[in-house]
Amino acid sequence: MLIEANAITRRYGQGDIAVTALDQVSFEIDAGEFVAIMGPSGSGKSTLMNLLGLLDRPTSGQLIFNGRDVGSLSHDQLAASRNRDIGFVFQGYNLLPRHSALENVEIPLIYSGVGRKHRLQRSRAALQAVGLSHRCDHGPTELSGGEQQRVAIARALVSNPALILADEPTGALDSRTGTEILDLFKRLHIAGRTVIMITHDENIARHAARIIKLKDGKVLSDTRAAPQCTDDAKPAPADKLSGAMPHALSKTQQ
Questions:
Q1: Of 21, 129, 226, 233, which residue is the least packed, with the fewest Cβ within 10 Å?
Q2: What CATH number has the domain bearing residue 96?
Q3: Alpha carbon of residue 134 to chain centroid
């Protein structure tokens, strides 16, 4: 079990002005699942994303991540676990504009103290796995939106995290490029990765194998769906994702 949420509640403020963003939410997520958490604005999905990303702690209830009670961790322990265990992918890519694709992917490894030789090896392999080995030396302004998001995914993968947490990862992309990114997440899932995707769009959520719907801070439904995967564009086939970079991409080989 990677994540276990037991009646987690998150409130902001106190007394009469307190706002309950999450109310007694419970679920479990196994390692290797591809889960979409969806809901409209105000449903609590962003609050839940912050909890799952170890950016916040529940007001009450228990959230277990990778065998550890989040509520018992210090700020330093939360920061260390975020860097080690979670790869973030955001709608806005969040790439450093004056650095190359390769340098952007290296960043988590620098924070982890990985030596330069191994950093370069792992970062190049991560970019190769997402179909961008030919763009290593290009900066963000020289890359398309889809290419920038692939760099962000490579950066999320390079530390070999337990979880890939993606917040509206296709929100800034056209529909075709968005489908390419969703197919890449699907291939990561097939290769053994745990992927949690936050979205307000049901059409996007349907690409996942499981959908948890939130409404007014509560779990409205938790269903398993037949995941969609188109073949219009294939930036990296599953065999490359599981074989090209065993230490940073594939969980099935560990």
A1: 226
A2: 3.40.50.300
A3: 24
Domain assignment present for 214: yes
Query: Which pair of structure tokens corresponds to residue 120?
Result: 């370069």
Take residue 90 and report the two structure tokens written for it: 């955001």
Residue 227 forms part of a structural domain: yes
pLDDT digits (tens, 9 = 90+) for 177-235: 999 999 999 999 999 999 999 999 999 999 999 999 999 999 999 999 765 554 443 44
- CA gap 196, 36 in Å, rounded: 6
Distance CA 154, CA 67 (A): 26
HEC secondary structure over the chain: CCEEEEEEEEEECCHHHCEEEEEEEEEEECCCCEEEEECCCCCCHHHHHHHHCCCCCCCEEEEEECCEEHHHCCHHHHHHHHHHHEEEEECCCCCCCCCCHHHHHHHHHHHCCCCHHHHHHHHHHHHHHCCCHHHCCCCHHHCCHHHHHHHHHHHHHCCCCCEEEEECCCCCCCHHHHHHHHHHHHHHHHCCCCEEEEECCHHHHCCCCEEEEEECCEEEEEEECCCCCCCCCCCCCHHHHHHCCCCCCCCCCC
Its domain, for residue 135, covers 3-243
Each residue of 31-85: pLDDT tens digit?
Answer: 999 999 999 999 999 999 999 999 999 999 999 999 999 999 999 999 999 989 9
